[in-house]
Design a protein that fits this description.
It is built from 10 helices and 25 strands. With 410 residues, it is α/β, with parallel strands linked by helices. It binds flavin-adenine dinucleotide. The site of flavin-adenine dinucleotide has 36 residues, from helix 1, helix 7 and strand 21.
Amino acid sequence: MTVHKYVIVGGGQAAASACEGIRQIDSSGSILVITDEEYLPHQRPPLSKSYLAGKAGLDKVMVHDESYYAENNIEVMTGVSATRISRRGRKVALDSGSTVEYEELLLATGGRAWRLPLSGAELPGVFTLRTIENSDAIRAAAEEAEEAVVIGGSFIGCEVAATLTQLGVHVTMCFLEEYPLQAVAPPELGGHIREIFEDEGIRVIPTMRPERIVGDERIEAVHLENGEVVACDMAVMGVGVRLNTQLARDADLDLTDFSAIAVDEMLRTSDPHIWAAGDIAAWPDPHYERRLRVEHWDVARAQGEQAGRNMAGASEPYTVVPYFFSDIFDLSFEVWGDLVDWDQTVTRGSLEEESVSYWYFRDEILVGVLALGRPDDERDPMEQLVARGLKYDDVAEALQDTDQSLDDLM
Ligand SMILES: Cc1cc2nc3c(=O)[nH]c(=O)nc-3n(C[C@H](O)[C@H](O)[C@H](O)COP(=O)(O)OP(=O)(O)OC[C@H]3O[C@@H](n4cnc5c(N)ncnc54)[C@H](O)[C@@H]3O)c2cc1C
């Protein structure tokens, strides 16, 4: 049996960043990364954007190339799944039949795409998108397709609809919400995105559920709940993820609702030698004073790095304000904070000029900001103002006044 000081289970952004975090503190302790994917640890944002469009290669998807792991004395096992954790013996069993021993273990197992359990959902030509193979398969299908249906109006659905359109496929989008990105965008912005989609030739069908998918050998049409039949050559479902936390459940680690792994402010689980980071980790956030769990790239990056540092003895709490970005056609969004629950927004700038930020308040407290085309020097203050949880009455007027610098509000 091999013994490693650090074992990391996962092949996404959190796993890659954890290697960096460990090496910032411990230059020599042995590190083993176990991933069930066939690739080195990689990031996923390009899989719905530049990589799917064929504009970026795999080198833009990998977080580090092979030389990084060799130079930093990190062993990566690809195509191997961790099947069981034995906490008492600090061992991880692998599907290859072998077992590895750890001093500190990081779970960074992320999520897998959810497939709606519709009749016909398994037909060839019906895709979900999480992996490099999924992105390759969607691009290959798009080369042959004329008509695609995208199911889902959140980020993955919107990004895939935009990229397929750029690849020359006519897209029909259907989703449950009233407008695209409804979970994070105020109605004015949602309406603007819908207009952009329609100008680009996408047919947008809001508040609509797909009922079944039909086809003989492969997909031929999606039947909607209003009886309409949308003929198509392919469909992509962007309808959310299920977390890969069965390992943690079987090991009796504390979980939260939605099967996330509960960690403390150091990103440590209920076992002192097991840590968790990225999509699967629910951490006690100091700004919102409640547990957050976020499925975004930057959270996986920052938590992976912090967990790595703490596994190596740093003992630093995780206090980063959640951040994410998305690119849809020419629109680039950035978001700081937690936009899950808000009841009021304040607008700074102009949506017509595509230079706008929306400031989100819950119970009169600032909880987040979404920015689109705002000047670069507003980025830092945005993050810091959100971290401070300012009161509506104290800042609403000043935020709307673009002549007033955000620095003044600090
Ligand atoms: C197509 C796409 C586009 C995205 N775009 C954006 C974006 O623009 N902006 C943004 O902020 N976020 C984006 N995201 C979200 C972001 O990619 C995720 O939040 C991020 O991937 C989470 O990283 P992670 O390391 O926690 O998990 P993951 O990336 O899911 O990695 C988990 C890894 O663990 C492996 N694994 C699981 N179980 C086991 C096991 N038992 N044994 C071995 N290995 C295992 C998995 O195969 C995988 O390699 C996007 C996601 C997708 C899918």
